[in-house]
Design a protein that fits this description.
Elements: H1 2-19, E1 40-48, E2 51-60, E3 63-64, E4 72-77, E5 80-84, E6 86-91, E7 94-99, E8 119-123, E9 128-136, E10 145-153, E11 157-164, E12 178-185, E13 194-204
Antiparallel strand pairs: 1-2, 1-13, 2-3, 2-4, 4-5, 6-7, 7-9, 8-11, 9-10, 10-13, 11-12
């Protein structure tokens, strides 16, 4: 009788540990052991030789959002201020991302990607781009993370200022005249790769729905 009770308790313990309740880890969500999963706003502070900066991104329902002010970066490097958009991902205990040069940033799009016409915007880089990789502790509510990255200057290029006017609509899409003005952007003064280290955490599990209107 005692042996039967012991076997029953052993079976119950194994079952509940697998289910993630009594005696076991909580349920996993989007690669995170936290009930909130990986959703939230993440921000990091970067530093290096003549480098100070920060970058941020946000995740909603397990994927990074688009058209949000929280997906951005700005660095001060050797007297130059450069900025752009951040694309990042959290997977298990790793975090990785790309610091885009900001091509197309500042376009006043709605959350569904639509444009309000007329509109004028600059299709241009910001003079630099980069990447970062590190480790993240998803067992902590603040999801502390740290790692290393690099920034690189961009070469000389020809960009465009695009203006789209609204004059009528067809099939729900309104397009009038489109004016494209080329402009020459000189090479970045950053030169080669600029290394940096970063430390950050998840600021909040609540994401913003504000669209980018810079």
């Amino acid at each position: 009788m005692k042996r039967s009770i012991a076997l029953l308790l052993l079976t119950f313990t194994a079952a509940t540990a697998h289910a993630g309740s009594f005696g076991g880890p909580p349920p996993f969500k989007n690669g995170s052991p936290l009930q909130s999963g990986t959703d939230g706003v993440y921000q990091a502070v970067a530093s290096g030789t003549n480098v100070t900066g920060l970058f941020t991104w946000q995740i909603q329902n397990g994927v990074q959002t688009i058209g949000q002010t929280n997906n951005s970066w700005i660095f001060f490097v050797d007297g130059n201020v450069i900025s752009g958009t951040t694309s990042a991902n959290v997977s298990q205990d790793k975090v990785a991302g790309v610091l885009d040069s900001g091509i197309g940033s500042g376009i006043p799009t709605a959350e569904d990607g639509t444009l309000t016409l007329p509109v004028a915007f600059l299709v241009s880089g910001s003079g630099g781009s980069g990447q970062f990789t590190g480790k993240i502790n998803l067992n902590s509510p603040i999801a502390y993370f740290s790692g290393k990255g690099t920034l690189s200057g961009t070469p000389a290029r020809t960009d465009q200022i695009i203006f789209i006017s609204a004059s009528g609509a067809s099939g729900g899409v309104a397009f009038g005249g489109v004016t494209v003005t080329p402009i020459v952007i000189p090479a970045s003064t950053l030169g080669g790769e600029t290394p940096f280290k970063f430390r950050g955490s998840r600021l909040t599990t609540t994401v913003s729905t504000t669209t980018t209107t810079q």
